[in-house]
Amino acid sequence: MRDAVIVDAVRTPIGKGKPGGALSGVHPVDLHAHALRSLIERTGIDPALVDDVISGAVGQIGEQSSNTARWAALAAGLPESVPAVTVDRQCGSSQQALHFAAQGVQSGAYDLVIASGVESMSRVPIGSQTAGRDFLGSEVAARYPDGLVPQGISAELIAQRWQLTRAQLDAYAAESHQRAARAWREGRFAGEVAALKAPADGGAPVPVTGDESVRPGTTTEILAGLRPAFRDPHWEQRFPDLGWKVTAGNSSPVNDGSAAVLIAGADTAARLGLRARARLHTFAVTGDDPLYMLTGVIPATRKALGRAGLALADIDAFEVNEAFTSVVLAWQAELGADLAKVNVNGGATALGHPLGASGARLMTTLLSVLEQTGGRYGLQTMCEAGGLANATIVERL
């Protein structure tokens, strides 16, 4: 089978996803276009050679609707002949885009393809696409008569099932902020972030160079003072034994951002004189209990390792999306991974989680970590609404 390789990857800084956030004045098409344009400029490729742009976005409504990937590709200056498509596997949308892109290369359908993602949560708020409507239907409701729950309650159920304490959740969150702040201080994000200028309070555009949600002063003592984010009488009645440990501080914030990855056939890269940074080794996607919803990273990791013929100890760096710190700690407790190898430069708790962009962002960071540490194999995995998860293994070249 033909090898698919990653030529390069880039991301925007990540802004706070609220009015007044650093990137809130940037239309999501323009934000996405910046990542695409930066990728093309860094690699020096002829954009007419791109066979497809496959992009992830979760809030496919309003300014992110109508196949937003197509408009971002045109905004980035790609030729009209280059097609584009937007996919939705919830938080794993751009990781799934990466899988589709690589699988297309492996099959011979593509020679050169971009996988990317975008989410402007300040301009397209989370949940906009459902707007309070029933998106499950009667038969799903019949299959789960006790009812499903929001992700925050799933995070609480995970903490309860794996007997995680509030102190553990907060300590991991504080460590994520410290790692991210340290990585910025030491210049470890310099090679992956494409700064941009964004409007500020209706005035002239100002440079945005760093991730806005990182708080270097975060401590466990500060986090311990935060109230549970999802506790209310309705859920207390249904789950009277929950410890109510999940807070805004040990969860990912809402964010704006974009990321893009250039994938090629190994033969195409060689023919075009492009240096490959990594080989896309193995893919997996799986489903899990939609009540717990966020635990799919456990079977997805096992499935990917099994397909790759690798053991957990063979993996040199992990990127596990920190939608909630309970997810990463449950994953670690179940699999026994060394947390020193997990989210080395900080995770979504600190850096942020712009939903549709996060899969491509994690891959961008994973490549940096492998190169910075000299590691060979990296694995990234992403929990997704509905009890889904993707896992991807790459081999640094």
UniProtKB/TrEMBL annotation:
Domain Thiolase C-terminal: 275-396
Keyword Transferase included in the entry's annotation: yes
UniProt-listed CDD domains: thiolase
Superkingdom in the source lineage: Bacteria
InterPro entries: Thiolase, Thiolase-like, Thiolase_C, Thiolase_N
Any Pfam family matching the protein: Thiolase_C
Active site, UniProt feature: 91 (acyl-thioester intermediate), 353 (proton acceptor), 383 (proton acceptor)
Gene Ontology molecular function terms on file: acyltransferase activity, transferring groups other than amino-acyl groups
UniProt-listed Gene3D superfamilies: 3.40.47.10
The keyword Electron transport is annotated on this UniProt entry: no
Thiolase N-terminal domain span: 5-264
Keywords carried by this UniProt record: Acyltransferase, Transferase
PANTHER family assigned to the protein according to its UniProt record, in alphabetical order: ACETYL-COA C-ACYLTRANSFERASE (PTHR43365:SF1), BLR7806 PROTEIN (PTHR43365)
Family designation: Belongs to the thiolase-like superfamily. Thiolase family.
Name of the molecule in the record: Thiolase family protein
Species, as recorded: Streptomyces armeniacus
